[in-house]
Amino acid sequence: MSLTQQDIDREIAAERAAYEKRLADGAPVEHQPRRDYAPYRSSVLRHPKQPPISIDVSKDPELVELRSPAFGERDITEIDNDLTRQHTEEPIGERITVEGRLLDRDGRPLRGQLVEIWQANSAGRYAHQREQHDAPLDPNFTGVGRTLTDDSGFYRFTTVQPGPYPWRQHVNAWRPAHIHFSIFGTAFTQRLVTQMYFPSDPLFPYDPIIQSVTDDAARQRLVATYDHSLSVPEFSMGYHWDIVLDGPQATWIEEGR
Fold first, then answer.
1. What one-character DSSP code corresponds to residue 256?
2. Side-chain half-sphere CA neighbours of 241 within 13 A
3. Which of 107, 131, 144 minimizes the C-alpha distance to 243?
4. In sequence order, which residues have a C-beta less than 8 Å from that of residue 3 and are 6 or more positions away?
């Protein structure tokens, strides 16, 4: 029998109740989701079950990166962070500006870090050959961008509001609108991946992926804030979202997924 949304709702409620009991019993706050979070079936099936493989780099410190791509400031063009200018015509959808800072646990800015994003188009479809959603493609929107943080740790993207989409984990499963973020440190092996969501999305309670971040405060740190000062007159709405890489205010990162 296929899983229904009601089945997932019950599992989410049970996981939340179990977490609240652990807190009441003195357990620490869980900023990261458990890898065996049952309502998120695909994570349970694919998360690592073996310890990481150690690589001896004593003889060659760059051994671990021999097959990794390399990026630098000269690889970033002036339109890489503007997803509305990458084609001959305008993409379809509500234009938005997304800005924020990349920070360490003490609130210090992280400069010159490569930030990449990818997202669905305004109809909720990715420009990917394995995409199965039958929503229309937008020939003027690829849905990928990148930029480097400035001296104050700021990044900025111009794009379109992504649409929600079905993902077939269970009957009537829909993902809230979101943008994927990838952050590179000083090496490819330091790559971190997370997701940004939009305020007041009605799909939040039904999505086991965002609900896998069981702690309410940690989950709210994934939601951007509407910022009217970032809106561009006659052009785009503005959202602010900071990414904190460590400490008690850290942004959820897809660790080991």
1. T
2. 25
3. 107
4. 41, 169, 170, 171
Extract the tokens encoding 175. Answer: 């993902």
| Structure-model confidence comparison of residues 66 and 32, the more confident one | 32
d(CA 99, CA 154) in angstroms, rounded, equals 7
Angle at 220 between CA 217 and CA 223, to 5 degrees: 165
pLDDT tens readout for residues 132-188: 899 999 999 999 999 999 999 999 999 999 999 999 999 999 999 999 999 987 666
Contact 161, 118 (CB under 8 A): no
Sequence-ordered strand ranges (E) for the chain: 95-103, 114-118, 144-148, 154-160, 165-166, 174-175, 178-184, 192-197, 225-226, 237-240, 243-244
Q: Give pLDDT tens digits for 2-28.
A: 899 999 999 999 999 999 999 999 999
List beta partners, residue 158: 82, 97
Query: Partners of 166 in the beta sheet?
Result: 174
Residues with active-site annotation:
126, 165, 175, 178, 180
Ramachandran assignment for 153, one of left (phi > 0), alpha (psi -120 to 50 degrees), beta (any other): left
Using H for helix, E for strand and C for coil, what is the string for 232-250? ECCCEEEEECCEECCCCCC
The string of pLDDT tens digits covering residues 110-145 is 998 999 999 999 999 999 888 889 999 999 999 999
State pTM to two decimals. 0.89
Q: Which long-range contacts (CB under 8 A, 24 or more apart) does 13-18 make?
A: 15/39, 15/211, 15/214, 16/211, 16/214
- Supply the pLDDT for residue 103: 95
Fill in the amino acid letter for 20: E
